[in-house]
Amino acid sequence: MSKSGALDLATGVGGKINKEDVQSAVDQYEKYHVCYGGDEETRKANYSDMVNKYYDLATSFYEFGWGESFHFAPRWKGESLRESIKRHEHFLALQMGLKPGMKVLDVGCGIGGPLREIARFSSTSITGLNNNEYQISRGTELNRIAGVSESCNFVKADFMKMPFSDNTFDGIYAIEATCHAPDAVGCYKEIYRVLKPGQCFAAYEWCMTDHFDPNNESHKKTKAEIELGNGLPDIRSTRECLDALKLAGFEVVREKDLAVDSPVSWYLPLDTSKFSITSFRLTAFGRLITRTMVKTLEFVGIAPAGSNRVSSFLEKAAEGLVEGGRCVPPRVGGHRSELLQFLAPRPRLREATTAASRRLRAEKNTSGHLADPDADKLDEVKEEEEARSVLCFADQRKSTFCSNS
Ligand SMILES: C[S@@+](CC[C@H](N)C(=O)[O-])C[C@H]1O[C@@H](n2cnc3c(N)ncnc32)[C@H](O)[C@@H]1O
After folding, report:
1. CA 283 to chain centre
2. pTM of this prediction?
3. Percent of the chain scoring above 90 in pLDDT
4. Measuring from atom 24 of ligand 1, which residue has the nearest CA?
5. Contact, 117 vs 89, CB < 8 A?
6. Does residue 391 surpass a pLDDT of 50?
7. How far apart, in Å, are the Cα atoms of 155 and each of 11, 49, 213, 288?
8. 250 touches 201 (CB < 8 A)
9. Rounded to the nearest whole angstrom, what is the distance from the C-alpha of residue 290 to the centroid of ligand 1?
10. 176 touches ligand 1 (CB under 6 Å)
């Protein structure tokens, strides 16, 4: 059964960490972060330990407060948080053009909320890749309860080194997960490798918008709070993410900051100045109750020592996220563009070769060697073919799925 009761929250804190070691895991986790003297290089070098500690400590809070899907969503007026989350998942599936029978990979799948929803919505088989053992055990139980164990499974592995052969999947998506990667190009390259040529990778990514000023102390503080409260080694800019996709070999046929024209702000559920019956546990009063409950359960020894500190850094994250979303010109984006969405097909072989030859030619030109004029002409023809085929792909997707873009 879905573990959303107070006792489940308390006993789940620490995930697979021994209960008597939770307190020291909180210490070690906090020390990775700027707010506690840590730095980006150490977080990146130890990303696996840092991110796993974070999800061992935080997963039961996520499940209690947010549900089975651990992501935000743009939202319409009158829509509940849960409805918006499901719609956001369906939208991704439609954009990828998922068809019954396809073999799909969910990169960084959490406890499998999106995976179950998308598998049922599209009649596909989905493998959830996750490096956190506790989340996989929760996801496996939830798959069994939902009756999707036949079509969906989990693999415990790092998305920087995937245990799959080249060209395995008919579609790949990642929802607010690759932000944990220490190196975006490395992660996207792995996705590219295991995706079949001509198929699609789509994702919702966490990014900083152009409004982020690295020299502004208040911006820096907000960024550090978001990193601490969300287990992030760093937060990349939108441009860095899009460049990384291209460097990994993808063509980007659609990219959009979904936060910009969302009628209800993505960060609203975390905003304590707002009240909601349907998201009561996230309101100021709901959070006060949770905090008191966690403190009490820790005091009587039901929740492990350190639970209250986890609750505190998650609260800090919520404050940072609201601040990041709020302190920017309306409708222009935050210094954190919460909901960057992109759709990136892996080019077929000929297209990939052409892209490579274009890169080679650019390298030849910069190194001072004269390019062969015939080779240039050949490349131009190939490039035109490539552009036509990518545009055709984009048009096909747009006319079928993206009429609201
Ligand atoms: C914010 S959660 C999102 C989960 C899921 N996509 C969802 O929306 O419910 C990020 C997920 O990425 C996973 N993750 C982080 N780093 C990873 C890595 N190096 N390899 C595999 N999974 C990773 C975490 O364990 C977690 O499940």
Report:
1. 24
2. 0.83
3. 51
4. 108
5. yes
6. no
7. 25, 18, 39, 37
8. yes
9. 24
10. yes
